[in-house]
Design a protein that fits this description.
Blueprint (H helix, E strand, L loop, with lengths): L2 H12 L13 H18 L8 E7 L5 E4 H4 L4 E4 L5 E2 L4 E2 L6 H8 L9 E5 L2 E5 L7 E8 L3 E2 L6 E2 L8 E2 L3 H16 L4 H17 L31
Length: 238
């Protein structure tokens, strides 16, 4: 659904005059609905690591502690790095972190050498210790705050600019969130709508993108294990 079709559906459901266009309208009621839709989208986008909002960033290191602005490295509306996803693909080693201020200062007070880099984000900059070699290829996953996709399929944004804008988060949840927010704004009873919405968000986050098996024992290995593999089939026995 586009922004326009979502608001049209909402208006029909709420018995409001259905608009033929939304962005740029002078109708105060429709403008309010669009603002509430943006409010809902921004809130929902920040509720978890939605797979639709997860992107991969590439970075070529420079020989300096300060690697530059994280918003420039992860250029599509950086919100946060997904933990334990930064890898130095040149050395084939993980980049450890993020470090907090206390650990970072303790590390800086002691001479630190070795192949294992550690990172911190401070002042909007990606800083690394020890100073990495130049031209190493680093990759990591991050979550964007841009939950809206333009009709061209390449323009990501946080706020609507066209009626044809679509969503990168579950549209059914966006619609449910819009419904209770509109009722709250109008002074209507919204508690049951909000309760149902929160249950659906929790369920969707639990299933979004698939989830790994959690082991309660000490076996944390993934993938095939060493051993003899006998495929299914019919075997002749002498």
């Amino acid at each position: 659904m586009t922004m326009l079709t979502t608001i049209q559906y909402f208006c029909r459901r709420t018995n409001i005059t259905v608009p033929s266009t939304v962005y740029g309208t002078t109708d105060p009621q429709i403008r309010q609905v669009m603002a509430l839709l943006e409010e809902e989208g921004n809130d929902l986008a920040g509720r978890g690591s939605w797979q639709g909002l997860t992107f991969e960033a590439s970075h070529t290191t420079i020989a300096a502690e300060d690697q530059g602005a994280i918003a420039t490295i992860a250029s599509n509306g950086f919100r946060y790095i997904k933990n334990q996803t930064i890898w130095d693909r040149t050395d084939r080693l993980p980049v450890l972190g993020p470090m907090d201020g206390q650990d970072w200062q303790a590390m800086k007070a002691v001479a630190s050498t070795g192949p294992r880099y550690r990172f911190r984000i401070r002042g909007g900059k990606l800083i690394v210790n020890p100073t990495p070699a130049a031209s190493h290829s680093w990759k990591f996953e991050y979550v964007t705050k841009n939950w809206i996709l333009g009709a061209d399929g390449t323009t990501y944004k946080q706020y609507f600019t066209l009626d044809t804008d679509t969503f990168l988060i579950p549209e059914e949840l966006v619609l449910m969130g819009l419904r209770w927010r509109w009722k709250k704004e109008k002074g209507f009873d919204y508690a049951e709508d909000m309760r149902t919405y929160e249950m659906q968000v929790k369920d969707a986050l639990g299933r979004d993108g698939g989830k790994p098996i959690l082991h309660m024992d000490s076996d944390t290995r993934n993938g095939p294990q060493p051993g003899i593999f006998v495929p299914d089939g019919s075997w002749s026995v002498p």
